[in-house]
Each structure stands twice: as C-alpha cells, then as structure tokens.
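Marked as duplicate of an earlier ticket. Keeping the data here for the record.
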Amino acid sequence: TRFGMPKALAAHGEWLIYAVAALHQGGCDDVVVVLGAAIVDVPAPARPVMAPDWSDGLSASLRAGLSAVEADFAVLHTVDTPDVNAEVVARVLAAAQSSSSGLARAVYGDAPGHPVVVANRHWAELLRGLQGDEGARAFLSARRDVVELDCSDLATGRDIDTPG
C-alpha cells in the first residue's frame, strides 16, 4: 500500500528480474516467487507460487513460499531491495551453511536486511510464529545464534517502500 502498487511491478518488473538473478546466481537451485497482489510472469529459472491469502500480509507470503519448497536452506529475499546482488546472496548462504545454527542474515552497516537464510530445521518454529505483516523478524530477534554478515561492501540493501 505504501508503494502504491505491488512491488513485483516496480520499475516495469526489473526489480523482480534482479531479485531472481541474485538468488539463482548466488547459489539457489530452486527460486520461488510468491505472488498475490499481482499475478505476473516470473523470470526464468524461477517458478511462481500463489499466496491466496496475500492480503493478510508478509506472513502469508512467507508461509506460501516455505510450504512450496523442499530444501535444506531457504534464502528469504524481498523484491524491494533491488541492489542486492548474487555476491550478497552467496556470502549469506555460505555463512548459514557453515554455521552450527544454520541461520544468517545480511546487515548493512548497523541495519539488518536481506537476504536471510534459515535452515530447514527451523522452518516449523518460524512458521508457528508468523502473523500479519511480519516476516521472520520476531523469530530472528529472539535468537542469539544468527550469523550477521556486513554486506555494505557489496550493496546498500536499501528497502524501497515508497516510489521515487
């Protein structure tokens, strides 16, 4: 709502193309794009997943996305951070894969951002706590074992919530 349109449509779909490329080139074998407010063709090699209850907020999208994949790790990313690139994804994914917690997130300076990587063993707990327009923030904030990687040398990680 703040943006005035579904963000998958932003910049004529370029943000979506950038996000899919970052995930795929950053090491994700199965890239899922969760759709709801807008139905668009998703760029290859991604596949679309519908969140029929998308109007419930971010939790609905996260629930739909995690339910649609079978993997050891999920890389959670948003379309509204268009300068996040494959190097950021690869850095955070590698950190999660090599950590005992299986949890990692990008930070930019002092600000937490995306992507976030969550090992499969945590998905049930994460899903239980989801509600409304909140994603993994509460789950991550309650933990002390999330590896935080400063990625400000690679991107700003700026979340764009308003046009212009």
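See parent ticket for discussion. DSSP finds five helices and six strands in the chain.
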